[in-house]
Amino acid sequence: xxxxxxxxxxxxxxxxxxxxxxxxxxxxxxxxxxxxxxxxxxxxxxxxxxxxxxxxxxxxxxxxxxxxxxxxxxxxxxxxxxxxxxxxxxxxxxxxxxxxxxxxxxxxxxxxxxxxxxxxxxxxxxxxxxxxxxxxxxxxxxxxxxxxxxxxxxxxxxxxxxxxxxxxxxxxxxxxxxxxxxxxxxxxxxxxxxxxxxxxxxxxxxxxxxxxxxxxxxxxxxxxxxxxxxxxxxxxxxxxxxxxxxxxxxxxxxxxxxxxxxxxxxxxxxxxxxxxxxxxxxxxxxxxxxxxxxxxxxxxxxxxxxxxxxxxxxxxxxxxxxxxxxxxxxxxx
Length: 333
Known about the structure:
Low-confidence stretches: none
Shape: globular
Largest sheet: 10 strands, mixed
Helix content: 25-40%
């Protein structure tokens, strides 16, 4: 069999898997499995945009060698009041070392600096990308905790992603954020444009809900709560501090998103949170997505130009210490 035929075979195989993942009758199957109908879609009435604060973080690998790597991390928040940005704060760009030893001691130092106590468990350096993400998450949770302690009551606090931790060390921190938000009467939500949540043995959640809403004649904005037993990904039951909702936040652009609210949120709290989300999701550049989160993302983004600048600063600093370019190339390629 020649290379062209092998390629065509692999393409056909991929197409078959996609078709099985999103079958033509996905809406009918979902309605049958979930038991959901048009009454499960709650409309979101228009309302004023109050105070909204969004938190995001960023990390980028700056240099990576066989035994040691350097990553840049930072986090920040942006606050809007009445659709106008009223404040922005960004942590300093911080370089963290990953390797050469098994345990990441920069993580220990950062965790202690942020939360005043040592981490429950050390961070492993074996996967540099995951280590960098854990370090970034530490900064992001710290900014979120600080924001939860200062926002006025009734404000909306947004984080990117999920109310679920990937490191045991962040478990008590996320719990403290949720507790603080509840004590101060804040609305707390985690927003994700994309999700790995599936049902029925691997079918995607968002297209099924979008199709069911359209078939039922539901126009946006709307929200609905997802029965946890409907989902078939075990990751959505482990380390989770929130419950899953799906919402479409714009009246003319159908763009369902996974949204998580703290466990135990009543329907009144959920409705108020969705109304606050919809009130800040009418930006013409990304209709249907809360623009405070976009603003926070752009504020903290570590792009290629910034990475290049950091690399040049490191090279210049090593040269001053007598480490010439040839050794640098030996280390990092």
